[in-house]
Structure formats: C-alpha cells, structure tokens
Write a structure and sequence with these properties.
The structure holds two protein chains of two kinds.
Chain A (H helix, E strand, L loop, with lengths): L9 E8 L5 H11 L17 H6 L6 E9 L2 E9 L7 H9 L3 E7 L6 H13 L2 E7 L8 H12 L7 E2 L8 H11 L12 E10 L3 E10 L2 E2 L3 E4 L4 E4 L2 E5 L3 E4 L1 E2 L4 E5 L13 E4 L18 E7 L5 H13 L5 E7 L3 E8 L2 H15 L3 E3 L3 E2 L1 E5 L4 E4 L11 E16 L3 H10 L3 E9 L2 E9 H4 L3 H8 L5 E11 L2 E8 L2 E2 L5 E4 H18 L7 E7 L2 E8 L15 H16 L1 E4 L2 E4 H8 L4
Parallel strand pairs in A: 1-3, 1-4, 4-5, 5-6
Antiparallel strand pairs in A: 2-3, 7-8, 7-16, 8-15, 9-14, 10-11, 10-16, 12-13, 12-15, 17-19, 17-20, 17-21, 18-19, 22-23, 22-24, 24-26, 24-27, 25-26, 28-29, 28-30, 28-31, 31-32, 33-34
Helix pairs in contact in A: 3-4, 7-8, 9-11, 12-14
Chain B lengths: L35 E8 L1 E2 L11 E2 L6 H12 L5 E9 L7 H14 L5 E6 L6 H9 L4 E7 L3 H7 L5 H13 L4 E8 L6 H13 L4 E6 L7 H7 L8 H17 L3 E4 L2 E3 L6 H7 L4 E4 L4 E4 L2 E5 L3 H9 L6 E5 L2 H14 L4 E2 H8 L3 H4 L1 H9 L3 E3 L3 E4 L7 H5 L7
Parallel strand pairs in B: 1-4, 1-11, 2-3, 4-5, 5-6, 6-7, 7-8
Antiparallel strand pairs in B: 8-10, 9-10, 12-13, 13-14, 15-17, 16-17
Helix pairs in contact in B: 1-2, 1-10, 2-3, 6-8
The chains are: A alpha+beta, B alpha/beta.
C-alpha cells in the first residue's frame, strides 16, 4: 500500500478565467510539462470531455487532474481542478474553489479584465484561496501585458510586478508558474489524524460503473472497501474503487488528507449524491460536515415540445439522460393546447439552456419547439403566503395576488469608454438601475447595475456585444425578489389565447412587448383560408391587434389526366408542411412561429 | 397484347350522347363486361412554341410528321377490345399537322372507336380553315376546342400564340358553318401586364361568340418555359394574387350570368355541354393516352410515355410498347386521387359512386378535413355529396392537400 503523501508537498489549485483567455491551453501545457501526458497525447484541451465544450471553447463541468512535479529537490503532487468559465456556471467555480488552497486567475494580455474575471476573483477571494494573477498570451501582437498588469493592480489589488506573464500556447513562463504554484500557494492543512471528511465537488454518471464522485479529502483518509457515509443524505456505501485522474482514471488504494480524486461506491443514481456533501467514515464519523454549497438556483425556464407528438416518449427519455449528468437541469411534464404534450425545463441561465438544447438535438436528433425563456416569479398572496411560479400559466387569478415579485440581479458590465453611452442606453431601456461606475483604466469602465433578470435573459448579452463591437462582457448574480408593476399579457390567435405565448412583463413594456410578439407572429403564421386576428390582452382588455389576411389564391388552374401524379406529390408535400404545424382552434401555426417569438431581436 | 384484358369493373360510360342536356354532369353507370375508357391522343407538334406552354411539342417546320401519325395508330392497336367512350386529340397543336394527316388520323380513330360519344380535337384559331373543319366533321369529330387564350392583340403577342383576334372569330364561325355545335374556347387570365379591363374584354368577347363551353385558366409559370425564364430574370412580373383572384371571381359570376355554369375549377359550360372526356379525368376513371409525352391511367397504373418522338416511333413501329415511366397506384393513392380529382368539380365527391369506386366511405375516410373545412364554410356536405363551396375554389389547393394522403 502506498503511503499517503505528505501534505506539505500537495498543492490544490484551480485556474479561473474568462472564456477564451486560455485556461484549457494552460492546463494542457501543465499536463505536458509535468509529464502527465506526452506532447503526442496532448490533444488540445484534454480536460474538456464533451464535444460541445470543445467546440464552444468552454468548460461546463469541473474536473480534477493530478500531476507530479519536481521542484527544489522534492516531488510535489499538483491537483488541478478545472472550472467552467461562463456566467451561468459561477456556482461550479465556487465548488471547485472550495476544494483548493489556491487559484490562478488568468487574464488575456490583449483583452484585459472581463466581467467574469472579476466575478471569479471575488469568488476566489471569498473562498479564502490564494490568488496568483497570470497574464496569458503575451506572445500575441496585440498583447499589452503592462496595461493589463495595471488593471489587475487597480481592480484586484495584486501588485503589477507580481503578475506572471506567460504564453500557454508557446509554453513561455509556464515552468516558472508551476514553480510558483509550489513556492507560493499554501499546502493543505495536515489533518490526517482527524476523522475522515471529504468534500464531493462534482459527480458524473457512467453507464457501467454508476456514479463517480469527484472529491477532495480534507481530513483523515479514504480507503478501498471502507464503509463510508454521506453526511447530508445519511446514506452509507461501500467504497469499491478510489482513484485519481492522470488525466485518465487510475485506481489507488487510498486517498489521504489534501488529496483530490474520485470514489466509486455502488451508487446507482446521480440524485443519490448531493454535490457539496461530505463523505465520512461510517465507523468513525466526523462530528460535523464540511461547509457545503448553496444549491444553484434555476432562474430561466422554457417549454420544450416535440415537433411531432409521437416523439414525446423519445423526448422524455432524452431529458432523463441529460438530467442524469446535470443536476442543475430539471424538467416536468407540461401540456399546452397550442403545442400538445411537452416539458417545462429549468436552467441556471441562458447558456445552460442553449447547451441543453444543443445536446438534445445533437445526441438525440429530435425536433423540438421551444417557447420563449422566462424567469421565476414570487407571488405574495392575499392570504399572506408566498409562492414561486416558473411559468406565466401558474399565475393565480389577479384578485388573489397581493404582490408580484420578480428576480433581481447585480449586473456587472465591463466595456470600453467609447461605447459606454450605448451600453447605458440599452441597460436603462431594460429597467436596469445604475449603482456604480468604475474606470478600470482610461479606456475601460465597469458598470454595476441592479437589474431585473427577466430583462437580461433574452438577447441582452448579444446586444451589448453588438453595441460594444464585441468588447463588453457581463456577469450577473441573483440578489433577491423584488415587487414590481408586473402584468401577464396573453396572446390571442383568432380569439383563442395561446398559453404558450403568455408572458409576464412590466406594465410599462406590456404594449411594446405584446405588439412586437404579434408582429412577429403575423410574419410567421402563413396565410390561412380565413382572416386571423392576432391580439394582445391584459386581463380581458385588448391592448394591441394585428391581422393576418386570408389566402387569396392557391389553386391549380389546370389538372387533367397527365398532371395527376405530379400534382398529388405537390399536394402531399403541402400536407406534410401543415403537419409540422400545431393547431390553435382552426389556425395552423408552424413551429417557426413559436421559434420566432424566441428571437427578441428584429 | 399485355395491356388488353377483358375486365375492369371501374368501367366508365357517359350517360348521354354529346350535347344532350342533362343535369348530371357525368353518370357513373357501371358496365362490368368491357373495359371502358377515355382515349387521349397527343400530337407533339406546333407551328411555334408558345412562351407559357409547358406541354411537350416540337416545331413542325421541315419535319415529316407522317411516321408519328402512323405510330400513333400502331400504339392504339395495343388497346384492341377497349371500349373507348370519349376521344380527345390534343397537343401541341393537332391543327399543325397537314390537313390530310389530321383528318386521316381522326377518321381511323373513329373507325377503331365506334362507341365514342364525344370526340374532341384541339385547334389553333390561326390554323382552322374550312377544309380542315369539314374534314374533321366528316371523320366523326363532334367537338372542337379552340386555344383562343385572349382577345387582346398585345396579350396574344406576349403569349407567342401565332394567331390573331380575328382568327378566333373567323375559326368559330367556320366551325359553326361546318356543323359543329359543341365548341369550346380556352382563355388565359392573369397575364403579366393584364388589367381587369383586358380580362373583362376577353370574357365578353368569348361570350359574344356564343359557344357552349369555356375554360378559363390563371396563367401559371411552368418550369422550362420562356415565361418562367423571363420571370426569373425579372422581365415578367406575375399579376398579384389579389387581382388574379378578382379576375377569377368576376369571370365565374359573369359566365354564370351568360348561362355558362362552372362545373370545375377552370371550366364552364351550358348544361349538357360539359366536356365528358375531362369529366372522366376528374372522376378518376381509366384513360389511355397515346403518343410521345402522353399519360395513361390504365389498370391501376399511371404511365407517362417518354417525350421523344424518334424513340417513340422506333419502339412502336417495331411492335414494342412505347418507352415510358410506370407508376403503380396503390389502394390508398387511388382513394386520395379520386377524392382530390372529384373535389375539383362543383358536383364534388358523389358519395355513392365514391364508395363503389374505392370501397371507402368518403365521410369517414376524410372525416377530419371534412369537419374542419365544413366548420370554416369551405366544404359542404349533403346526403349525396361532399363538395367545395364557392369561396373555397380560389384556394382549393390549401384544402385539397388534406385529401392528398391518409393520416
């Protein structure tokens, strides 16, 4: 049996960075330099295991990899816990950081600090991790490492001469950085004599082996065949395998204090393991659990319907598979008269939603109709009870509502000073209240807003990207529910309300939003055999109307014997086209009409 | 001959001699003893190609049309024993053939098909002369269909018709003098640049000629035609659908006032002068088409002869079948085709005949679309028939497509 590593020579750290600032490339270079993988094996960005992650250049799930590194005559065990880089996955970053003593904060030398960098830095400081600031991509022509170092000093208070200047791509400075990890980051505290406590910071489901938990041992040790207890759940399991990621799974006999690895213990359902739970020894349990995580809150909701009703069971199976590996995704059956049977799905944010949507299409080849994303609302009822609703259809009768509250976020936008006007105008148009303006440098500014989440879940990010020519970045954090003058608008197609299109909006936006919707619908719904009124209503009151004119002409003038085969084919195609539509009363609405509602840009 | 057998229970026989007045457009008397059918003969020649026409035809200039005419008769021999009740020589322009060839062909067909009640020849008004018309009459032809298309000279020029407005008047009068009482004119509306007034002028002119049958077609841009190319190049702008529809609705109303009842989406006739041959198509009865480019619906298969005169002549003259494409029609296709074709007629689906022909109860088989469109006032149901209502006609395809396939 191998002896547990002396904690003095263990370093647990994360790399936190904005998307595309080179986090994964840096990780690859470290794996190479430490001989964990050979350059030949080094497929780019080895830590990103899902296709989508690799394609989109982002990391969705945290994962940990163990490297051995010789420094100052000793062998160090470096555990790198990778983190996602997007706003929606901030909670995953905090999870990873909770398992670390240090963090490398990577900033692109050509782009400087981004909103997400800042959010990550706050998370890292908050978790008590030691931060090393790393300026990456110094080999780029557009690199301005000195300017970026000044920004870092100004915003984060890390002295500019303490910033590491590297190029993960060429390898420049990476060895020095690894030395610094050993030299400057603190080792885990030696608590090998205390009762076992290990933090589960992630998990995933493997078809053959069941649930694989990623963990960090804080005290004591874990051994194969040990009977363990999940302190939060209160369940016990027998350890069948322990191991480390190097970067592939390598079994070990035990994981000692300070180490990072995985445990397999015959757990069949991902739902049986709560991320943030503490593993302890069943025979000699720790008196109290490690501080866990706040479970992430689902903030964005959308309905998914199969394009073809017969695909409903397949869609359900697909969602079940997706949920297996993503505890932050949820789905419940939903029935809409417009779209038939489908599911209401909850997501952490918009990117999370997009990723699920893409995986659904890519891995399952199912056509889906998806409704506009909405947020969660809180209702204070007249009887004093408070209720959360995830869909406008759950809204009780107006007479029962004392107060309707919507989620607010602290929104940080970093942009260039010459685009600040446009960004501010957009934000004000979306009911965002400016809290603070902070100039990071003469050319870059950070704006902090108090913003209603509903206003930014749609296309807000795309729009500020557009206004700022791609420079601006944003990050948001949920702060709480606040009361507002909110109303539910209904969309009536040929006098029939289409539940799937109902929206809760601020009264000041009701008419504009409603009209925009029906104008889009007017363009998306093909003419039918009769005239169709499209209306926007609040309560029973119509506040806007558009009309789809009836078909004028659709008839084959000549049809004799010779044309029958061809004409039947054309008619069958026309019928097929109709089949892809959903009926609202006697109106046929194509999926595209619903999809077009999603697109709030014009 | 492979294609000749004695039995087909879907026999078709028109109820009355041509020209006899009757309220029923076509009766579906069933005669199980012989195979009855319509006969279509395609003459793939024209003096010149019209710019909108998508049918198969080649110019006659400098060409010996004799071998084709012989081959047509040879192909017809393959259908010995078939009881043809209607015959229709179309094209192309049958009248583009030398007079003796066309008259000879007409006579030989008549000899072969003694029970034909309605015998139509298409005629370009510019190619009708007294000799031809008298010859056709003598050969047993009893109906002429003139491709008048328009009474506006500039429209005729745009269409590339190669005949004048005067030719129309002249040929109709000659036909009457030759003893034809069953005459039809084809008209085209929604010609690019055409106004409501132009169309009204053409319709009024046609009514003035006092013919018992009219076809009014909205111009369509067929693939491969000059018009299609011009439209794609932006040289022609299709008439907008509002105007197209207005022209159509006006014509329907005007023609009814003139005693020409609409009996199919594009066809109008004095009662008793409905085209029996075409009613056979819409009743989805069998028909035999001979000639290159001709279609047949025969013994449960739809076939289309290849549009190639030389190959056709070679094959037929060496005793083989005309080269063609064959498409079997399964039971479901037959049900749907019958419904779609029937619904083009104002009389719609005759429920009893439909059941007899297809074995299906139309009200049950198509219950869903019938209910939906009935609710919208686009279909009406009586105890005997299902039919499109008048407002449904200009948008018929949006309705018929729901009858084009079973769920």
């Amino acid at each position: 049996m191998t002896e547990p590593m002396d904690t003095q020579h263990i370093r647990n750290f994360s790399i936190v960075a904005h998307i595309d600032h080179g986090k994964s490339t840096l990780a690859d270079r470290m794996l190479e330099l430490t001989g964990t993988i050979t350059a030949r094996e080094a497929k780019d960005q080895i830590l990103d295991t899902m296709d989508i992650e690799r394609e989109r250049g982002i990391t969705i799930k945290a994962s940990g990899v163990t490297m051995n590194y010789e420094y100052a005559g000793a062998t160090y065990m470096l555990n790198l816990i990778d983190t996602p880089g997007h706003v929606d996955f901030g909670y995953e970053v905090s999870r990873a950081l909770a398992a670390c003593e240090g963090a490398l904060l990577v900033v692109d030398a050509s782009q400087g600090i981004q909103a997400q960098t800042l959010a990550n830095a706050y998370l890292a400081t908050g978790s008590g991790a030691e931060i090393l600031a790393v300026i990456n991509k110094v080999d780029l022509q557009a690199a301005q490492p000195e300017l970026v170092a000044e920004e870092i000093e100004h915003v984060l208070g890390i002295r500019k001469n303490e910033c590491f200047r590297i190029s993960a791509k060429t390898g420049v400075g990476v060895k020095e950085l690894l030395d610094a990890v050993c030299e400057l980051l603190p080792p885990p505290k030696d608590r090998s004599d205390e009762p076992t406590r290990a933090l589960i910071f992630d998990s995933h489901y493997d078809d053959y082996r069941g649930v694989i938990c990623y963990l960090r041992v804080f005290s004591g040790a874990l051994k194969v065949r040990q009977k363990i207890r999940l302190m939060g759940e209160g369940t016990t399991h027998q350890v069948t395998e322990l191991g480390k990621f190097k970067p592939d799974m390598r079994p070990v006999d035990q994981l000692g204090t300070g180490e990072v690895g995985y445990v397999i213990a015959n757990i069949r359902n991902l739902g049986d393991v709560r991320i943030g739970d503490t593993i302890t020894d069943d025979a000699r349990p720790a008196p109290d659990a490690l501080q866990g995580y706040k479970p992430p809150m689902q903030m964005v909701f959308s309905d998914f319907y199969p394009g073809n009703n017969t695909e409903y069971p397949r869609l359900r199976a697909a969602f079940e598979r997706l949920a297996l590996n993503d505890a932050s995704f949820s789905f419940v059956p939903q029935n809409s008269q417009a779209l038939g049977f489908g599911f209401r799905c909850g997501f952490l944010g918009l990117l999370h939603m997009e990723i699920i949507q893409e995986r659904l299409e890519r891995e399952n080849d199912i056509d889906v109709v998806q409704t506009a994303p909405t947020v969660s609302y809180e209702i204070l009822l007249r009887d004093g009870t408070v209720k959360r609703i995830d869909s406008p259809s759950e809204l009780p009768d107006r007479t029962m509502i004392e107060e309707l509250r919507e989620p607010f976020v602290r929104l940080e936008i970093i942009t260039t000073t010459d685009t600040i006007g446009g960004v501010m105008m957009l934000a004000e148009g979306r009911r965002c209240k400016l809290v603070k303006t902070d100039y990071l440098s003469p050319t870059r500014v950070m704006l902090e807003y108090r913003a209603p989440l509903a206003e930014i879940v749609y296309d807000f990010y795309d729009q500020i990207k557009g206004i700022s020519h791609g420079y601006a970045t944003m990050n948001y954090e949920f702060t709480g529910f606040e009361a507002g003058d909110l109303v539910k608008i209904d969309i009536l197609v040929n006098h029939t309300p289409v539940e799937a299109l109902s929206l809760i909006v601020h009264r000041s936006n009701a008419e504009a939003r409603g009209r925009k919707l029906i104008i889009k619908l007017r363009r998306a719904i093909p003419r039918q055999q009769f005239e169709i009124p499209l209306q926007v209503a609040i309560g029973g009151k119509i506040i806007a109307r558009e009309t789809i004119k009836a078909y004028r002409k659709d008839v084959t003038a000549k049809l004799y014997g010779g044309d029958v085969t061809r004409k039947m084919k054309v008619l069958k195609r026309q019928k097929e086209g109709k089949k892809r539509m959903k009926s609202v009363g006697s109106v046929q609405i194509p999926q595209e009409a619903f999809m077009s509602i999603l697109d709030t840009s014009d | 001959m492979a294609d000749c057998g004695p039995d087909d229970d879907r026999a078709y026989s028109p109820s009355r001699p041509c020209g006899e007045r009757s309220n029923a457009a076509v009766s579906r008397t069933h005669d199980t003893s012989v195979e009855a059918a319509g006969l279509y003969v395609h003459i793939p020649f024209c003096r010149s190609k019209c710019r909108y026409c998508g049918f198969y035809s080649v110019p006659t200039a400098g060409r010996d049309t004799g071998p084709l005419v012989c081959a047509l008769l040879r192909e017809l021999e393959r259908y010995e024993g078939v009881d043809f009740r209607t015959a229709y020589i179309g094209g192309g322009s049958p009248s583009a053939l030398p007079v003796d060839q066309l008259v000879g062909l007409a006579r030989r067909i008549r000899e072969r098909c003694p029970r034909v009640r309605e015998y139509t020849v298409e005629c370009n008004p510019g190619q009708a002369d007294a000799g031809l018309l008298a010859g056709l009459r003598q050969a047993g032809v009893n109906r002429l269909s003139f491709g008048a298309q328009s009474f506006r000279a500039e429209e005729l020029r745009l269409l590339g018709r190669g005949h004048s407005v005067e030719d129309i008047d002249r040929s109709v009068n000659l036909a009457k003098q030759a003893g034809f009482d069953n005459l039809s004119l084809d008209l085209i509306f929604a010609i690019p640049g055409s106004t409501r007034g132009d169309w009204q002028y053409s319709v009024e002119s046609a009514i003035d000629l006092n013919v018992p049958h009219l076809s009014a077609y909205s111009l369509s841009f067929e693939t491969g035609t000059v018009f299609d190319a011009w439209r794609k190049a932006g040289r022609l702008c299709p008439v907008d659908e509002e105007l197209d529809r207005a022209m159509y609705e006006w014509a329907v109303e005007r023609l009814e006032c003139a005693g020409l009842d609409q009996y199919e989406i594009s066809n109008f006739a004095r009662p008793g002068f409905e085209c029996l041959h075409n009613l056979g198509y819409w009743a989805n009865r069998p028909f035999v088409g001979i000639g290159p480019g001709a279609a047949s619906y025969w013994r449960g298969r739809r076939t289309m002869n290849d549009a190639d005169i030389e190959r056709y002549v070679r094959a037929v003259e060496s005793g083989m079948e005309a080269p063609r494409e064959v498409q079997p029609v399964n039971a479901e296709d037959a049900v749907c085709e019958t419904a779609v074709l029937n619904l083009r007629m104002r009389s719609g689906i005759d429920l009893a005949a439909f059941r007899q022909q297809t074995g299906h109860d139309a009200l049950r088989t198509f219950a869903e679309p019938i209910r939906r469109y009935r609710d919208l006032g686009l279909i009406e149901v009586t105890d005997r028939c299902v039919r499109l209502t008048r407002p449904a006609l200009p948008i018929a395809d949006t309705i018929l497509c729901d009858f084009a396939a079973l769920e």
